Description:
Low-confidence stretches: 8-13
Distance between the termini: 26 Å
Mean pLDDT: 93
Number of strands: 8
Structural class: alpha/beta
Amino acid sequence: MNPTFPDLFSGHASLYEAHRPTYPPELFGFLAEIVSSHDLAWDCATGNGQAAIDLAGYFDRVIATDASDRQLSAAPAHPRVDYLKARAEVTPLRDASVDLVTVALALHWFDVDRFYEEVRRVVRLGGVLACWTYSLQRVSPAVDAVLRRFYAEVLGPYWAPQIRHVDSGYQTLPFPFEGIDAPRFQIVRQWELERYLACVDTWSASQAYRRANGRDPRDEIGDELKAAWGIADAMREVTWDLNLLVGRLS
């Protein structure tokens, strides 16, 4: 059970909106192809609406819910997206009204049993639930080694227990639906070091470290990371592998 909403992102919603990478367009094209109707999509735990805006290109209407007022306030307006404050496990959605449910980088925070009950209530027969997270980003062996140490050693005590599900690519979470094989998707960006570090600062453990110690955790690896990166303003390719759970309600 998870009776208390673990709100770890409201305090830096603007950073999250500015510095988290968006998702590949091909992902949303795939999701649109595997549902038979495109009347309504529900983007659960929408955060700042990244997935919701892309879904609006394929669905007549998108309802994007989040439990955080601050996250919702950072989401961009769109004529086919309605933002609502609601927990994942209890929503005002009508029974059997939804064609597709998406959960981007948030399933590990839910009371999954109650959330799945809500999905079964609101999704039409044959509709789809798609949840995803992504791997630790990759740049080069030298940069990646520094980041792994930062992730595990510097931030290790500050991660919530649920992060184990992200580390497993969601393979440690139950998923009681008829599985659908998904293509492999990646996020690829060209970033300089400052942009890379800004993304790292959006992590919940980075913010928890700041609150506990009164200083920036990135200072722990600054010199080492600069040496591994090379010229600070050099653009480097940053890659994340997406890990998907996709299932049909039958």
